[in-house]
Amino acid sequence: METLTFPRYSPDDIISYLRSHVLAGAEARNLVKGDVFGNPKLEVLHMIYMRILQKVYGIRLEHFYMMPVNVDIMYPQIFEGFLPVCNLYIHMERLLPVCRINDFQIADVLNPKTKRTARFLSGILNFVNFREFRREVYLTLQLNYKSAMEKHQQLETANREAAAKLEKLNTVPVEHQAEVKQLTDNIRELEQLLRQDYRRKQTALQEVISQKKSDIAESTRKLNELKVTMATLKEEQEQLKSKIVESPEELKNYKELMKETVKKLKKSKQEVIEKYEGYRDLVEVLPSCQLEVQLYQKKMERQGANVERLASVLSEVRNLEDQLECAQIELKKGKTDEMSLKRLVTAKHEKLSTAEIRIKKKREDVEQYKHTVFEYCNKVQEKRGAVYDKVTAIHKEIQQTRFKIQQLNENAEKEEMKAKEIYLNLKSGLEKRHDSLIKTAKSYAASREDKIAELKKGLLRVQTPGSSS
Fold first, then answer.
1. How many other CB atoms are found less than 10 A from the CB of residue 31?
2. Cα–Cα distance between 448 and 70 in angstroms, integer?
3. 334 and 156 in contact (C-beta within 8 Å)?
4. How far is CA 348 from the centre of its chain?
5. Residue 370: count of CB within 10 angstroms of its CB
6. Which end of the chain is more exposed for a tag (fewer CB within 10 A), N or C?
7. CA geometry: angle at 194 spanning 188 and 195, to 5°?
8. What is the dihedral of CA 217, 219, 225, 228, to 10 degrees?
9. What does the alpha-carbon distance between residue 190 and residue 193 come to, in Å, rounded to a whole number?
């Protein structure tokens, strides 16, 4: 497995990382390079693996000494010494595929090699670094979620305050409602009266002005006509001067015509003067009209100030509405963030619930397995009690036989000096007795070996169906 998805660390880097991030206290101070590399110490390497599993999975120390629940074992007392190594191998076999290491074996726990151990620790440390980095990201996400919830609550509070303020501005107090209504009605009536009076006087003044303008235009037109007539008459006079004859009648007629023309001109002049005087009277009346117009203009300005005041109040209301809209937009954003975070939290809760269901199921399986193990242990204990009773009976027989032999030896030693014949007889009897005892012991040993072989066969038969299941 030369192509790796993680960097290969040097032994010094691995030892320094283990001292600073995995181990603590005396374990970190006492760790040296020779404990892990070169000629590794099993207890130190097992301790490092246990600390890594405790850091990653949160496995407690007593879990390494518990019987696994996925294996059916006939005699669990046999595996008590091997349980920590077996559990360590099971947990490491679950951890290392996550670290992209798929060739971990039980020999790497019982008889570790330096190169393989360095590769395993490199992959594990790379995964631990990655886990710490992602854990910081998760904590940052959790902190952002909390800040978003706090901001959401602040925005809701600001929204409620703005809504209350807007409602307060829109609502008139009860004690001022009648006065405000009366003032509003008076303002409307005055506005209507002022508009009507202003329009009436404005239309009258415009009519007078238009009439005067038309009269002036008519007078100007007539004056121009008279000027044209005077010019034509002067030309005729000049022409007639050249054509004057000595006829007195024609001269008389011409003078009469000229007199009539002069009378007409005087009459038209008098009319123009009268119209001028009328226009002058109208011009004299104009300042009083202007004063009235100025008075109306002042009233309109006051009304405009009231309208501006009302517009300022309306602008404040619009500003508050804009702020309310902005707060609502931020509230919507906060709600969307909240929904996304809620979805993440629900997904995490679902994963947690599935994990809890699995753990519950495993616990039920463990309890059931414990119950079956306890029943089987009780049966084994009963069988063991029966065998123990037989063995104790045999031991009692042996002790009794030994005690009889000892008594016979003592009697033989005491009576040896008395009579050699009795001694020889006793010796021959004892030899016969010894032969019978040897035969008895051999037969007992042979029967014991047969019973032990039968027990071993029974154990093998019970273990083979348990391992197959």
1. 19
2. 35
3. no
4. 12
5. 13
6. C
7. 90
8. -100
9. 5
Tokens standing for residue 79:
């595996």
Q: How far apart are CA 369 and CA 71, in angstroms?
A: 9
- Alpha-carbon gap, residue 280 to 248, rounded angstroms: 47
- Helix (H/G/I), strand (E/B), else coil: 53: helix
Confidence (pTM): 0.35
Block residue for tokens 């063995």: 391
For residue 468, which of 67, 83, 71 has the smallest C-alpha distance? 71
- Distances in whole angstroms, Cα of residue 229 to Cα of each of 15, 159, 217, 234, 273: 130, 86, 18, 8, 19
11 burial class (0-12, 13-18, 19+ CB within 10 angstroms)? middle
| Distance between CA atoms of residues 353 and 242, nearest Å | 135
Residue with tokens 């290392």: 96
Cβ pair 123, 101 in contact under 8 A: yes
The Cα 28–Cα 36 span in angstroms is: 13
Distance CA 366, CA 363 (A): 5
What one-letter code names the amino acid at 239? Q
Number of C-beta neighbours around residue 18 at 10 A: 20
Summarize the confidence of residues 188-193 as an average pLDDT. Answer: 83
**pLDDT at residue 232 is higher than 60:** yes
The amino acid that residue 183 corresponds to is: L
CA distance 146 to 141: 9
Phi, psi of 82 (to 5 degrees): -95, -5
User: What SS3 state is found at 247?
Assistant: coil
**Cα(201)–Cα(195) distance, integer angstroms:** 10
Q: Residue 1 has what pLDDT?
A: 39
Residue partners of 130: CB distance under 8 A and separation at least 6: none
Residue 148: pLDDT over 70: yes
Residue reference for tokens 């037989």: 390
